[in-house]
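User: Second chain of the day. Same drill as before.
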Amino acid sequence: MSAVNTDYSTMVRRCLLTFKPFRIFVAGIGFFSLCFLMTSLGGQFSAKRPGDTPFTMRAEVLGGPESRGGLRKISDMLEVIMKRMDTLSKLGNTTTDSHRLDELSSALDRIQPIGLVERIQAIAQNMSDMAVRVEQILQRSMATNRGKDGTTGQCEVPKDPHYPDCPSKVDWMRARWTSDPCYAFYGVDGSDCSFLIYLSEVEWFCPPLTWRNQTSTPTHKPFPKRQAAFRSDIGALLEQVGTGKESLSFMKRRMRRLAAQWASAARRLHDSLRSQWREQKRILVHVGFLTEESGDVFSPKVLKGGPLGEMVQWADILTALHVLGHNLKISVSLKELQGFLGVPPGRGSCPLTGPLPFDLIYTDYHGLQQMRQHMGLSLRKHKCHIRVIDTFGTEPAYNHEDYATLHGYRTNWGYWNLNCRQYMTMFPHTPDNSFMGFVAEELNDTERLSIQRNKVDSMAVVYGKEASMWKLQGKERFLAILHRYMDIHGTVYYETQRPPEVPAFVKNHGLLPQQELQQLLRKAKLFIGFGFPYEGPAPLEAIANGCIFLQPKFKPSHSSLNHEFFRGKPTSRQVSSQHPYAEQYIGRPHVITVDFNNSQEFESAIRDIMRTKVEPYLPYEYTCEGMLERVHAYIQNQEFCAPEAPFPSANASSSWPGSPPSPFVLLPNSSALAWASNITPPSWPPLSALRLLASLEGQSCIDACQSAGLICEPAFYRFINIKEAFSGLEVQCEGVEAEINHIFPAFSVENSECGLQKDPLLFSCAGANTKYHRLCPCRDYRKGQVALCRDCL
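Assistant: Same format as last time:
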């Protein structure tokens, strides 16, 4: 018996060591399976497309009962293979001869190809899935044939005036239905009947078919409404953010560092809202610029001085939404996006497999592009739910696709035909958009006192972590002036050698972690910018740590018309300095803006800074509480999916005061008009905040409102886009015409011309024309919170 065991063990060992019989066995089964599959399916495999794996089942594959039987046989055979391999592996579990079993196990470890068992398991699973899929397709096809009129299987294409596109869509489907596997996924099989079912039940180009059992069409119940509750623990959020990218690690470090401040802000907002009922929203956050498909150029630069502003903002958006108590899903890959949305398999030509499972989707321009590629017609249907995080802003003239194309505003971005308030900016520089913002770290009383005690009046820190930011022509001249008064410190990234762009008299600390950078700023008196990067978070953080921010004034202002950085961006905004928000909303003594090319002006500013004492300052809108307040107001009040009621309604004017009737009344000691109607139509912001002004000739509404200490409010345009607005401002009009023009409503004094806006997508605070005075809907705002009017909460 011992000899028999020895011979058997030797035979197994030799077989496994050579591996030839086993390889031949697996290869033979694989070849037989492939041939059998192709034969049984009648050669109906479509050509392999990019992205397909060798075992991907195309959704066009159809076949008869023999096809299903063939797939089941292949699946069964592979399961038998797995069972026999499993039996073979159990040889190692006997204890009769531990030495021989050790040798056998060692031999298996040496020769077994990595992942072989897992591959065979995957093949078996794919075969099983393929069989199920073909079964589903065949069931749909047979159900369709059973429901057709007569026995010929022919369906007549309806000619319904309510569905004028139906015939052309059927023609398109006849020619192109195999261009995307998603059509077969929805049961299209090449017959006119399947086209009509798809175009009437999945899309909406054809009328419902009378012979279809409409009760079989799934009806989706609305999601139940739940109350949102403030959260103070961010543990669940940190888990959702995930790992694997340095950018995500940076965002999580920021979330942890500010967690206590977010929790404290949530408690204060809860108290101020007095337990007001807040609906919990289902929110998808898709950070498109971090996906591999968009290139993710940011993650590799996190530790090399690259731009962090976008990641700062996204980290704060995620935290604000979580703390406000909403139901979040986070996506940083295309695969996650497709899974969350319910994208059918294929190339994105078909709608989603069900209703949109989210109330809101926060993304960026990269994510918006990815959704267009994969959501098909569903994007048009659901785009009202989207909010686009847009650093530099998008103006209406660039957003309106047809208008932008006809009038030279078309760029690589923009042209999405959204309501411009769906774009959300980092700073409140574009009133046509909503202001999302970010937060800067707040100081407690102890930290503020420590800063005042430890400030070094002769210490300056330069704004610029990358060596390329130090290549500014002429920097030696003004840095030499600064060096006569202060020691200059830099935080420029380098690997081995000091960057040659940094002058020798600058003490370079290298790239610092956030906490060490804050310690440096708490000592420094001055934070100086070279003009780039534009509109980042660092100046606000420096001012919050007690620094004075010195920045260059641009002459002329930078814009998409004259500067390479802004070229192609969907805005004509004139950027007057490196950080316009700091210049306009904070100003002296915390922010000083001068012409760096004027040595005398620059040196005078340095002397003023040396004499000036400032305390740490942070605008309320950049605190955690300010951001929570703003995001809460947007989520609960902004609504872009429900159609707006026409204004004025048929009988509205009968309730207006005055003769002739008008909804406006002149404010005392002012040229502005306020809303005076006894019947106030629903609006957010409320119409009590409205102030109607006429701009100067050639002046934008942004500047006109700002000069009156107000903010332009695009939500009010539909209420002032009426002829009574001209008469209320005592404008003489020979006639009032409606026109598609982003300057309108507006009037020309010289020609007595008055024009109303014909397309609501072109209501625009931005834009000016030397021929026209514009009608401007301005509003008041809360102290330290320009995004919200006084009665907006």
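Confidence is low (pLDDT under 50) at residues 1-27, 31-71, 87-117, 142-152.

User: Great, on to the next one.
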